[in-house]
Write a structure and sequence with these properties.
Layout (H helix, E strand, L loop, with lengths): L7 H10 L4 E3 L13 H8 L4 E7 L13 E5 L1 H8 L16 E9 H4 L25 E7 L3 E7 L2 E9 L2 E6 L9 E7 L2 E4 L20 E5 L4 E4 L4 E6 L3 E10 L4 H18 L21 H16 L3 H4 L41 E3 L38 H6 L12 H6 L19 H8 L2 H16 L3
Antiparallel strand pairs: 1-12, 1-15, 2-3, 2-4, 4-5, 5-14, 6-10, 6-13, 7-12, 7-14, 8-11, 8-13, 9-10
Helix pairs in contact: 5-6, 5-10, 5-11, 6-11
Length: about 475
């Protein structure tokens, strides 16, 4: 048996100190899950139906959210026949392979193989210091070339991702790029915040601040494990005809202030989107967010979160504010994603992350571009990649218009108003004429402002003050 480059204790220590995405090599060669190709999964699941999400392949400047996709229930055997141009493709027959990609995403292994629990042991996250964590704590993702997950940020934890079959390209952005990514809560998912920008084909006229975003891009090869830190944004796309990956989501301790903020957001979103309105009939609840929540249920959850936060000393309640999405103050990173020396007081250099042949930092693409043809096909060699449609390929970073855009409410996901269009050079109107040219305010526009992180943060503070000193 090959000796792993890091013991489980060493790997856990590395994860505890990593501040940027990184790829582990040569840690999974003895994991049985590496045999989980789509063909193998098809043989194990047989006639079991799996839900696939389908989207059109055409190029667009807008992200395709999960609420806008088509869905089918099919056997993996049908899926494989569909990718191979065969005729017995079951429910896929209505979707020409030349026009659509398909993705079986978020499939919990514990549910998929509930009658085959021995398969849980094929996944060995204990090698990364998480004793007892295996396939029962993981999800499997099966897709075709072009299958993608819209750019989003997970609010509660970090991710470890093992690539099993084919390759996936990851576009990652640090937390301080939140403003540049135009966050939105529609579609709504409690544990995720989405970006309005299609990061591979951005509309820089509508979203000029994205030109200043720092893209960290890596193509993950089979056998490699990617670490995605908490609050790092990511857009993921399958590169090869068939891809399989396994993901485990590790929930980190969340400060009570952040829980109150999320409770406020949920209550506002559900209250406004549940109201009857002519422009309020869109699909706003992400398919991964199951069930419905009543106003009373949301209010009860908010009260519990406020009470828990109020019971702690103020310093503890706010102690992790810097890790919350509401804190998007600028910080400086080097090309590998490490915080620069000006922030070193927050992260004492008592532990040196052992980057080298077995642990590769994902680098900032704008500082260290690598072309696609330089990607190694080796299972144990990782490299970054520059896609033709990668961020920054259609515009220069950090223009004055982009900086001006950040100052306006439109930067939070609204349709750009005349003032912002003028700042971006897309409007010939004088500033005095712009008021009458603003797009009419919609329900979603209002909601985008109400759940802006700064607004939610202030509301959270007021609620805690009111709880402590009731009127």
């Amino acid at each position: 048996m090959a000796v792993k480059p890091f013991t489980s204790e060493e790997a856990k220590g590395i994860l505890d100190h990593l501040q940027q995405p990184a790829v582990f090599l040569n840690m999974t060669s003895d994991w049985p899950v590496l045999l989980w190709t789509a063909e193998h999964l098809s043989s194990r699941l047989g006639d079991r139906l799996v839900r696939f999400r389908l989207g059109r392949k055409q190029k667009t400047s807008a992200p395709l959210f999960e609420t806008q996709c088509s869905y089918v229930q099919a056997r993996i055997a049908h899926f494989l026949c569909w990718t191979q141009g065969q005729t017995d493709v079951g429910p896929f027959s209505e979707y020409p392979y030349s026009e659509y990609w398909a993705y079986a995403d978020y499939k919990y292994i514990a549910m998929l193989f509930e009658d085959q629990p021995s398969m849980f042991e094929d996944v060995k996250w204990s090698d990364f210091g998480f004793e007892g964590r295996n396939g029962s704590d993981s999800t499997v993702w099966i897709g075709t070339k072009g299958a993608n997950t819209p750019c989003h940020m997970d609010t509660y934890g970090c991710n470890l991702v093992l690539q099993v079959q084919g390759r996936k390209r990851w576009h990652l952005f640090p937390p301080e790029d939140t403003t540049n990514l135009y966050p939105t809560r529609i579609p709504y998912e409690e544990s995720s915040v989405f970006s309005l920008v299609h990061v591979q084909s951005p509309d820089l006229k509508r979203f000029p601040a994205f030109g200043a975003a720092q893209a960290y891009i890596v193509t993950l090869q089979p056998g490699q494990v990617l670490y995605v830190p908490r609050h790092w944004w990511h857009y993921v796309e399958s590169v090869d005809p068939v891809t399989v990956s396994v993901n485990t989501w590790i929930e980190l301790e969340v400060d009570d202030f952040a829980r109150v903020s999320e409770a406020v957001t949920k209550m506002v979103v559900w209250a406004i989107k549940s109201a009857e309105s002519e422009d309020n009939d869109d699909s706003w609840l992400n398919p991964t967010e199951e069930g419905s929540a009543s106003h009373n249920e949301n209010l009860q959850y908010l009260n519990l979160a406020v009470a828990a936060c109020a019971q702690r000393p103020r310093g503890l309640c706010h102690g992790e504010m810097s890790s919350d999405v509401s804190d998007a103050h600028p910080v400086k990173r080097d090309s590998s994603g490490q915080l620069k020396s000006s922030d070193s007081h927050k992260n004492p250099p008592s532990f040196s992350v052992p980057f080298g042949p077995h642990l590769i930092a994902v680098c900032c693409q704008q500082e260290n571009p690598v072309e696609d043809d330089e990607i190694s096909s080796s299972r144990d060699d990782v490299s970054t990649s520059q896609n033709d449609d990668a961020p920054g390929s259609e515009g220069s970073p950090a223009t004055s218009a982009a900086l001006e855009q950040e100052k306006h409410a439109c930067g939070t996901g609204l349709t750009p108003c005349g003032l912002c269009q003028s700042a971006a050079g897309t409007s010939k109107s004088s500033p005095g004429e712009n008021k009458s040219k603003c797009t009419a305010i919609s329900t979603n526009d209002l909601l985008a402002c109400l759940v802006h992180p700064e607004i939610v943060g202030r509301v959270t503070e007021l609620l805690l003050e009111r709880h402590k000193n009731p009127l």
